[in-house]
Amino acid sequence: MSTAILTGQPVPGSSLEGDLRSLGFDVRTASDAGDAETLLATVPADQRVAIVDARFVGHVHALRLGLTDPRFDAAALPGAVTVRPAARQALTRALARENSAEGGTAAVAVDSVGVADRIVTALDAEGVGLYRPELGTLVAAVPADPQARDEARRAVADVDDEAVRLRTAVKSRDGFFTTYCISPYSRYIARWCARRGLTPNQVTTASLITALIAAGCAATGTRGGFVAAGLLLLFSFVLDCTDGQLARYSLQYSTLGAWLDATFDRAKEYAYYAGLALGAARGGDDVWALALAAMVLQTCRHVVDFSFNEANHDATANTSPTAALSGKLDSVGWTVWIRRMIVLPIGERWAMIAVLTALTTPRITFYALLIGCAFAATYTTAGRVLRSLTRKAQRTDRAARALADLADTGPLAEGLARLLPGPPRGTALLSAAFGAVAVVTAAWVWGASWQVVAMAALYVGLSAEAVERSLKGPLDWLIPPFFRAAEYGTVLVLAAKAEVNGALPAAFGLVAAVAYHHYDTVYRIRGDAGAPPRWLVRAIGGHEGRTLLVTVLAALLAPTDFTVALTALAVAVALLVLFESIRFWVTAHKTGAPAVHDEGEPA
Predict the structure, then answer these.
(1) What is the pTM of this model?
(2) What is the distance of C-alpha 540 from the center of its chain?
(3) What's the confidence (pLDDT) of residue 339?
(4) DSSP of 105-156
(5) How far is the C-alpha of 32 from the C-alpha of 11, rounded, in Å?
(6) How much is the pLDDT for 110?
(7) Measured on CA atoms in the order 316, 322, 325, 330, is the torsion positive or negative?
(8) CB 366 within 8 A of CB 296
(9) Which residue numbers in the chain have pLDDT < 70?
(10) Residue 593 — φ and ψ, nearest 5°?
(11) Helices (H), 220-361
């Protein structure tokens, strides 16, 4: 329960008290700052509390945006201020000062500036970060006289706040397919869910279940199954859009919800790849290598996105001619949509997969997916490289730390990095790139052999050199993607070279488990929760340790035994990373970690 303290003289005919109750507030009244301070002391410390000027006139949704958003510890709008427990002491101090001022010669007349607005001024002076929502056409005002009140009420009547609420439930930046083919009606599904008390997490779970059923239909290998799979995948995407819109519509943001939304998106897509591969196998066509290649390519695309964004998250002097050109292109409507479509965001990608599944074969579906994702990856990576080379920016320690965490370096490279003689060398990117190319090429040329093990050992050494210094170079954000490509690519090639039933599905499972760990690392960093604990990274070997282990297993074991070893390794990694990840996010949710909702890139 939250508590709202109304200050000042009640206004006859005002709906403010009822509006606040509709938002879940227990409403109390205070005549001045002294009464408000007394009432505040009676509110439990673990509750949200708001102080609202009794003269406030505005839309209910304006109050909702300003007073109920769980992502912010303190927020304000004209005539109202709210704090969560983390900012409670600052509010208490501000009220105490206002109470003291009202009793002295420095008092400000309550009739001219209400208690709530004076507290906002005091909190600003104290340096408390107050969130002020963008209201747009919504009204939030404290009229000074009856005429101004009448004008404010007419302004409220002129704007349909429910229409505004529905419109702003849609993500402000999204792909063409999502914007024009999904959001026009999914927002109404979100409102339907809100009115029936459904939560975004429930809708997210429904989307996952729908996608898993779609994967099961694809696994049947029949034309009817493929058609059903395509339709269900599209419906899963509708629900995927709905959960975010429901969160924005009802301001039901949470740490757990953001994690579920991001994690389930990856699980749905990659489970569907597996379903398509199983269905193709039933029809006599082995496309497991294509399914695994699609997952590797898509995961590496995401790592490029994540690394670039983290490297430039708080960069200073962030200027670039390439960025300026991009800004100019974004000012022209048609170029914006073309650029968003050619990067094959999740909406366009899933629509393509669904249509091709229903109308063609899994092999054609994967070929189209690989070609489209390869083009998108080339386009986005080239643009980011140009930006990085032409911008003048100082990378921060936080960015370097994030890149080091994304690198997922294990004990082998860590230990070697400490033993390397001389000062750190400025060849980090070159070392990572050469090592990745060397180990994957060796696996392609020699297959399961000790030559590949030797190249994997070289990769370990080059990985150590790549991370021995702080990753602040202009292109150092490419190092984590190179590491991902090296590890995933080596597993893919060695499994394909084994040429036994079950090797590629086992490799698919191993890459999926490791990719989950890498995605989880990203989501923790984005939520300012830090990277996974070092014990976990060391326990699963780091990227270089796993790569070396896989090459040793391939050289030592017969192909069938290698398949069993890959399966066991996949299960072991999955159990460790899932246990730690679920434990962390559930604990963070229960202990009241700051709520987040990642608008993110539409990929």
Answers:
(1) 0.91
(2) 24
(3) 78
(4) TT---TTTS-HHHHHHHHHHHHT---B----TT--EE--SSHHHHHHHHHHH
(5) 15
(6) 43
(7) negative
(8) no
(9) 102-112, 314-334, 393, 422-425, 592-603
(10) -60, 150
(11) 223-250, 255-282, 288-311, 321-330, 333-342, 346-359
Q: pLDDT tens for residues 493-551?
A: 999 999 999 999 999 999 999 999 999 999 998 877 888 999 999 999 999 999 999 99
Whether 261 and 585 have beta carbons less than 8 Å apart is answered as no
Distance of CA 343 to the CA centre of its chain: 18
CA dist 565 and 410 (Å) reads: 20
Per DSSP, 476 falls in state G
CB 88 within 8 A of CB 49: yes
d(Cα 101, Cα 125) in Å, to the nearest integer?
Answer: 16
Write down how long the chain is.
603
- Contact call for residues 308 and 377 (beta carbons, < 8 A): no
What is the gyration radius of the CA atoms in the chain, in angstroms?
Answer: 28
φ, ψ of residue 29 to 5 degrees: the values are: -120, 145
Q: What residues pair up with 438 in beta bridges, in sequence order?
A: none
Look up tokens 């080091």; give the residue.
Answer: 404
* End-to-end alpha carbon distance in the chain: 37
- 501 Cβ contact list (under 8 Å, min separation 6): 563
Instruction: Please say whether the dihedral angle defined by the alpha carbons of residues 459, 465, 467 and 473, taken in this order, is positive or negative.
Output: negative
User: Could you tell me the CA-to-CA distances from 40 to 29, 35, 84, 391, 449 in Å, in that order?
Assistant: 11, 9, 13, 51, 72
What's the pLDDT score for residue 365? 98
Looking up tokens 């459904």 gives 198
Q: What is the pLDDT of residues 327-368, one digit of tens each?
A: 555 555 667 778 788 889 999 999 999 999 999 999 999 999
**Lookup: tokens for 14:** 């005002």
Q: How far apart are CA 550 and CA 448, in angstroms?
A: 10
Tokens representing residue 298 in the block: 């898509």
CB 387 within 8 A of CB 323: yes
Residue 263 C-beta-side C-alpha neighbours within 13 Å: 21
